[in-house]
Amino acid sequence: MKIHQVAAQLFTLRDHLKTPADIAASLKKVRAIGYQAVQVSGMGPIPEADLVQLCCDNGLTICATHEGSDRILNEARQISERLTKLNCKITAYPYPSNINLSSLDAVKDLCRRLNAAGKILADAGQVLCYHNHHHEFQRIGGKPVLEIIYAETDPRYLQGEPDTYWVQHGGGDPVAWCHRLNGRLPILHLKDYTVSAESKVGFCEIGNGNLDWKRIIAAAEAAGCQWFAVEQDSCPGDPFDSLRQSFDYIQANLCTR
Fold first, then answer.
1. What's the rounded mean pLDDT across residues 93-110?
2. Entry pTM
């Protein structure tokens, strides 16, 4: 993994991205930390051309986005147009909103709709990925829902964006899932997993938790991963400080020169 492949998932900074002025100030801080790429998510309204210009001014690549779940399923052509405006090739379905994951029929219908949306993006040279939480590790017929989703979708139309924290939280193995998604893993969410003195699990900066990052990164690279997006759903203090801690750990311990 090279440092230019490490992106800040902007959902981490969502409370600092409400207005165009907030976005401009936050992108400047992200670049000052050292990140050279961002994943667009959790952001207030801003014209795509303005966002592209702000990223260009700060030397930041928009490597991917998250878009609304319903919009991806129902407005894939508009999503494709947005990606084109952002000079971005990758987006992800972020959450199975209003989907009954305990029903095989509902899961198969979701897969059908993801295939249809993904084909529209693929025809435009773009990539739709699936972002998991722990919910997808409930089982139907002895198989995790996430396994069913990838089995029931066409790799040409749906790729993976596994989230290391949520894989671990669901009882899965992040390394094994990187191997499983060989050739189907353009982007990985780096999110560490910790257990407190009160035995509560939670989010933390990369390197401050329990995940085996060297094995995870090696498996992701072997699977063809192009982007490694750092995300922290909640931070103990300033989220910019958390992003900095994660970046410094990654640069010192996980990146090759």
1. 97
2. 0.97
